[in-house]
Prior knowledge:
Layout: H1 2-22, H2 27-49, H3 51-58, E1 79-84, E2 92-95, E3 101-102, E4 111-112, H4 118-131, E5 140-146, E6 151-156, E7 162-165, E8 170-171, H5 172-178, E9 189-197, E10 203-211, H6 212-217, E11 226-227, E12 232-235, E13 240-245, E14 251-254, E15 261-262, H7 263-269, E16 280-285, E17 294-299, H8 300-304, E18 312-313, E19 318-321, H9 327-332, H10 341-350
Amino acid sequence: xxxxxxxxxxxxxxxxxxxxxxxxxxxxxxxxxxxxxxxxxxxxxxxxxxxxxxxxxxxxxxxxxxxxxxxxxxxxxxxxxxxxxxxxxxxxxxxxxxxxxxxxxxxxxxxxxxxxxxxxxxxxxxxxxxxxxxxxxxxxxxxxxxxxxxxxxxxxxxxxxxxxxxxxxxxxxxxxxxxxxxxxxxxxxxxxxxxxxxxxxxxxxxxxxxxxxxxxxxxxxxxxxxxxxxxxxxxxxxxxxxxxxxxxxxxxxxxxxxxxxxxxxxxxxxxxxxxxxxxxxxxxxxxxxxxxxxxxxxxxxxxxxxxxxxxxxxxxxxxxxxxxxxxxxxxxxxxxxxxxxxxxxxxxxxxxx
Length: 353
């Protein structure tokens, strides 16, 4: 009986202890709740004063995480993705102004962005946010969302003239490939205009002439230059000369890249003479700086019989083979000759004067 009483008293003591620990109004529960709230409050205060530690645990908000654009210097009109921890107002894409400045919300002063790498702009933004007391210790990341300050244009004798932004390493051949390649009437040179800032701070253009054959053959690797943006690439049309008169196929003919034109080549391209038995032919040429035409007589019969050297033809030359009855009679009939292109028609008008 005594043992039963002792057990009952012990059970009652345990129940009172359980109520003290687990009961909603127990002192221990109140103590634990107070400690938990204190820990949360301390953590929030630490995160406000030291966001770097919290940022390392949670990870950044990436504005342009999927971008594969290479890291280059930021330029005017470029689009940059900015992420500032715990600041939705500053976590988005911003366009650099045409003057190279970046203007951000909550900042009174703009930031010079043009000419900086993304990591350098991060540092500049952190300094600005701290100096204007917007944040104590801001965590900033910057990425390139879009380039607009590195245009390359390709025009002239290409299949698809194009303008695009240089991203990463772009070579001259890459740029021509972007334009679909050269056309059949492309000239022998490629003109590359590069922007250049002089000692006085003024911007000028430096024009380089690249031979097409040397570039395509790859014999000189330096011809396939690297492009950084701002270049204008122009491929002029090939030069032309004209053959009229007593030939089987009068016409306009291209001076191919790397090739030289001459009287004999002109006869071959025009399929030879037609009812011609004279001795003299004529080249009509407009010299640089000359207001009129120059008439150059050549001994065609001697050239064909290898008794006189071949005569070169230049771009825009008109090679005229008159009839055997005389040059003046032939000139009178030029009005009925085949007119080949606007350039040829203009040149033939000179023959009447």
